[in-house]
Amino acid sequence: MKRDQVIRAVIADDERLARQRLRRLLAEHADVQIVAECRSGYDAVRAVEEQHPDLLFLDIEIPELDGFGVIKSLSQVARMPHVVFVTAFDKYAVQAFEVRAIDYLLKPIVRERVAEAVLRAHAAIAPHGDRRDALNELLNDLSARRPSRFTIHDGGRIYFVPYASVDWIEAAGNYVRLRARAESHLMRATMHAVEESLKGTPFVRIHRSTIVNLDRIKELRPTFAGDYVVILHNDERLTLSRTYRSALDRITGGGDPDGAAPSTGRR
What is the pairing mode between strands 82-87 and 103-106? Predict the structure, then answer.
């Protein structure tokens, strides 16, 4: 398939904010047309049978029929779409690729990963092997350049801290401190440099001295001063200052931050 040809896509996710977020990110790709949105597994099956899409963005823990149940139900359709799983958990990754999903997006999804998923879809659908090989080469190059861990220099010792293990990051003079569960790691870097290095990852800056892992956020509570209290799953409390109010879009998936305290609601 040429890049100027359109990929017909279905989004299946029971979370409204998650659907909105994915729809906005896909709207940046003129070569993707969303033909249906679904809130349950059975709705997803019906949409595929009726719309014959090229691509299905499928939540795994979806009501009535989970993502793998959807795949099983569609196994006999004449034109099975390529599947990109979308979930808040990495525990399903092996099972996802066993059913030949072309990609696996972790919530909160980010722009760069959606772009890669679209490239993978073009590679999978392309009729010519050279086109597929070229796109796969590009995807491999993008993946190779994306770091997934912090490198800590401690005297003559060098060790690594995976991004996924870090709850939040705080400024500490000429250093930053990585808060990882009960552990703390000091790394020589500025907050700006760390923020730049974490683009395209589930980290967002919420204060001049604080960067937080979105996957660790349990709840947001507004304050009378116009800030937000960010409550983590371990009950630690951080401050989202008004200066970084734009971070709310990534935390809530694009929901309205005004009024009642928004909850992340990710599963």
Answer: parallel
Cβ-proximal residues to 247 (8 Å cutoff; 6+ apart), any chain: 204, 205, 206, 240
Residue-wise pLDDT tens digits, 147-175? 678 888 887 788 888 898 999 999 998 89
Which tokens is 102 given? Answer: 């072309």
Q: What are the angstrom distances between the C-alpha of 264 and each of 17, 34, 232?
A: 9, 25, 11
Closest CA to 89 of 61, 114, 64, 117: 61
Q: How far apart are CA 103 and CA 113, in angstroms?
A: 9
Strands 82-87 and 55-59: parallel
Distance CA 159, CA 74 (A): 46
Which pair of structure tokens corresponds to residue 120?
């993978």
Amino acid letter for position 3: R
Contact present, 85 and 103 (Cβ < 8 Å) = yes
Q: How far apart are CA 229 and CA 239, in angstroms?
A: 5
Tell me the pTM. 0.51
Q: Which residue has the tokens 């800590």?
A: 152
CA R_g for the chain: 20
